[in-house]
């Protein structure tokens, strides 16, 4: 009995704290909540209670990193049995989907499998690049050149024609961005194009439209960090139909200065229009007109098992869904495991575009979990209020950011904002104006001295040294990162499952401000009508 009382009190004071964002980090007396809530020790009584398990402090308490890790081991086994990956369009993805689906069904969920079209792309073997004239030469795969992801296959021997290059430090190359760049381009030649200004797809499709048989895009060379080889992509929608290789700046410059150059290039890849799937499930309980969504992409890249990216988000979400299956949320909680994120956010984009206006309006929040166990982690919260990076999320996103912050503060754990850069599945929710937020523990970016002080770990090293590589396996997970970020996920999801007031209030305030702006505008128009025509005309 006393337990219930304390839940109400604790939750009540947290509502206050999150809505005013004055929640202080707990001091030594921070163990106020007592052993019942304290993380670390299992508490089966709490986790079996349908009321308590679904509360903002109960759910994180019941979501244990060791259980999330068990699920990650399952995903690792799936990858190991399926050519080492779980990439969309391949058996490892199908097996991952089946695993999540079965687990959810066993917990009592009705699971919706949503098919959608996408273009599967897999490199089959290394590419070839040789000079045939004026001097024979061979170039080294993954040193001099690589594939642009989503290139079409092809085998081409042809003269090379440079397209509107702008060489040198500080250049502002627009090579290949305009159709006119290809005026007089000889059909059947290989286009030598420089990176810069517009995206790769535009350059390659312009070349294809001008009759090019193949394209080499070399790095821009405007700065030192844009000279080497990089893994870049044409995007899922590339329709050039010709092979496209990426090369280093120095090679590009040398080729552009070689008279009579003929190259032989081969792209040994598979590219195929096919379909893959999202998986969606929701709590039986809760108001269907007030939906809180939480999502994670389930696919990996082709290069590895994708245990941190994004087995971590997927497994934590699955564990949370199982725990919530017996809970009593006020709002419906909808879980999504996205397909083909790594092919360009394809699954989440399809889902969002397939919503009716009514369905869209019912989604009060979208929470994204992509990479939450990075081995050299930082605790990053999407910068919903724009306070760290300028770009704000739709109204309501600041409240979501505050909710996550409140939990990190409560646990006395450090955190910081991370830029809304559209590199994960929240992008389309943002476009539709749905409030969003989420967590991330870092990828290829380098940890600073300051961040190493804050979180521990190694300065000067990437947050995830195995990002998009074969070594993104179960050894590539920090259990503490998984624990604290899984708990923060559970806290925010549970919170919003009980009430979206913090979001509703922020939306109402934004609408009021916009209305105020309209009123001002109307006033000035009226004023202009009254006085004004003399002044404006
Ligand atoms: N997990 C990453 C997202 C990510 C990586 C966010 C690094 C921030 C920093 C995601 O799976 C991914 O790799 N996204 C692609 C973009 C997407 C549109 C294909 C990326 O960032 O290259
Ligand atoms: Zn990812």
TrEMBL record:
Source domain of life: Bacteria
Keywords recorded for this protein, A-Z: Aminopeptidase, Hydrolase, Metal-binding, Protease, Signal, Zinc
GO molecular function, one term: metal ion binding
Signal peptide annotation: 1-24
InterPro entries xrefs: M28_fam, M28_SGAP-like, PA_dom_sf, PA_domain, Peptidase_M28
A biological-process GO annotation: proteolysis
Short name of one Pfam family: Peptidase_M28
Domain PA: 156-254
Domain Peptidase M28 as annotated: residue spans: 278-490
Gene3D superfamilies, A to Z: 3.50.30.30, Zn peptidases (3.40.630.10)
Keyword flag Zinc: yes
Family: Belongs to the peptidase M28 family. M28A subfamily.
PANTHER family named among the record's database cross-references: METALLOPEPTIDASE M28 FAMILY MEMBER, PEPTIDASE M28 DOMAIN-CONTAINING PROTEIN
Name the UniProt record assigns to this protein: Putative aminopeptidase
Biological source species: Metapseudomonas resinovorans NBRC 106553
